[in-house]
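Appendix B, record 7
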Amino acid sequence: MKEILMLHGINHNMFGKRDPEQYGTVTLEQIDEKLNELAGVLGVELESFQTNSEGEMCERIHQAFLEEKDAVIINAGAWTHYSYALRDALAILTVPFVEVHMSNIHAREAFRHHSVFAELAKGQISGFGVDSYLLGLRAAVAAIQ
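Structure tokens (predicted):
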């Protein structure tokens, strides 16, 4: 069975409470539930990981490489726009990764328009709320089949 890793970045543990105009009221647990349901339908195994520590996120990416995960989905949150450490960690991966965002990062503040790792990603999905995650999972599965 193909194994996919879902990486949730900084402040995502506050989904449901944080800025409901941008992110709605869905919680991280609810997002993971929807992802796991879809993973079952698609016949893949999904593991989710969330941290507010950039170093821990880099270490989890390294671990994904060593575990030979088949694909990675990442919503790095604000790290997307400036974390060269995460970019370098993601560059280690030899499998496709998909970048996702709940909000449309291109319709927000100017600093959010740029992703430091978009050029490494298989693709980027943003602006569809929870569906961004589900579309990202579908894209990751398509990329490894």
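Remarks on this record: The two ends are 11 Å apart (CA to CA). The chain has five helices and five strands.
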